[in-house]
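ingest -> validate -> predict -> emit
validate: passed (alphabet ok, no gaps, 262 aa)
predict: started
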Amino acid sequence: MFAVMAIGANWLSPYSAYEIALSDKLLPPFWSSDGNFNHPLGTDKLGRDILVRIMEGTRYSLAIGLAAVGLGGLVGTVLGLITGFFGKWQDALIMRLTDAMLALPIILIALLFAVRFGPSFQNLVIVLALVMWARFARLVRGEVLTWKERDFVSLARTAGSSNVRIMWRHLFPNVVNPLVVLATLQIGWVITVEAGLSFLGAGIPPPAPSWGSMIASGRGIIETAWWVTVFPGVALMLMVLAFNLLGDWLRDALDPRLRNIE
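emit:
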């Protein structure tokens, strides 16, 4: 459903997410006495359609989630393979860096990053990826430590395979399943953090319809125009819940140990 909303935001409604119509400002949802079906979920303080902006915001949320998780997952996977396979000083160095990154407060780091470089889509993806790679690195390291002493790895070494080939052809395929599960769960986490940062003004800059900024725009009028805040909040909750449920389902489907539990 959210994918359809993101892809079809420009075609499913005659209105634009950026179209200002002050004559239609703060219209209530269609079931209210003053509402109408032209704006089924009402409008905001500038007369912009809430439903259209939620649909457009879906695109931004998914794009940031996929981009940040993709970049952070790539960096974390490479570092996790290296530290798990080689051990020694590489393991000590990368794991200490991983512990440091996991201890950093993400909201504070993102706020400082936004103050220094300005809020933007690209900067938000970069800062989220910078703090996320550590989660992937720790997971991959643990999986590699489990698999690298198996017989098939020893046979690959005996056959003269290079370290890079062993990591890519023999170890990486065995960490794909837990990586997919973690990535799915992390997308929901990223979407939540992005909404929080946009709420604070450090996420996607206006007039882009981030769900966080939409929620923030209605906080001063929530008693008289509750729909401005509530509907974006419900959309955020449902998307995060969807990714969490998908992650749980993938974990059960891809982990053979869980499949064997009666």
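The two ends are 32 Å apart (CA to CA).
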